[in-house]
Write a structure and sequence with these properties.
By secondary structure, this protein is of the alpha/beta class. Helix content is 27%, strand content 33%. It is built from 4 helices and 9 strands, in the order E-H-E-H-E-E-E-E-H-E-H-E-E. The protein is globular and about 35 Å long.
Length: 153
């Protein structure tokens, strides 16, 4: 998460697949002038995100939406999307959902907008990010996790 200090400035930041809301809350605390949009297909995740935002005193600065990816946002409408993609369907490892989320982030990003993604290093998502979003560089890495920034063509 410290890498997000380097992320492009934006009026609104989107936490795609917000899960427990940790990234949305961190962004709200890090960037008090940025509106936060958070979405997840899971009702439990949406509820958890709302609780996390409230616990961090930033609930009033965020919109949390239950949605299939970013279906609720128009094309080419945002400058910053952050994502920690899921890689399980039930108990099995499945990366298809990540590719869907990458493509939807690309749809929503304006030209020059950024997708910041943190993923388990062994999943090697960089070629897919290059193909689906645009030029992708590594912002950080350790043996378990990789953080990349993809710039929308």
């Amino acid at each position: 998460l410290p890498f997000l200090v380097q992320a492009r400035g934006a009026a609104e930041a989107v936490d795609l697949g917000c899960g427990n809301g940790a990234i949305a809350a961190y962004l709200a605390l890090l960037r008090p002038d940025t509106g936060i949009l958070a979405s997840d297909q899971s009702e439990a995740a949406v509820a958890s995100t709302r609780l996390t935002l409230a616990a961090n005193g930033v609930a009033g600065r965020a919109v949390v939406q239950r949605a299939d990816a970013l279906s609720w946002l128009p094309d080419h409408s945002r400058d910053l999307v952050v994502l920690n993609p899921p890689f399980h369907i039930g108990a099995s490892v499945h990366t298809g959902i990540a590719h869907k989320l990458f493509a939807d982030a690309a749809r929503v990003l304006r030209s020059g907008g950024e997708l910041w993604t943190v993923w388990n290093s062994h999943l090697a998502y960089r070629p897919a990010l290059n193909r689906l979003v645009g030029p992708t560089r590594q912002a950080g890495r350790n043996p378990r996790f990789t953080v990349t920034v993809s710039t929308r063509r």
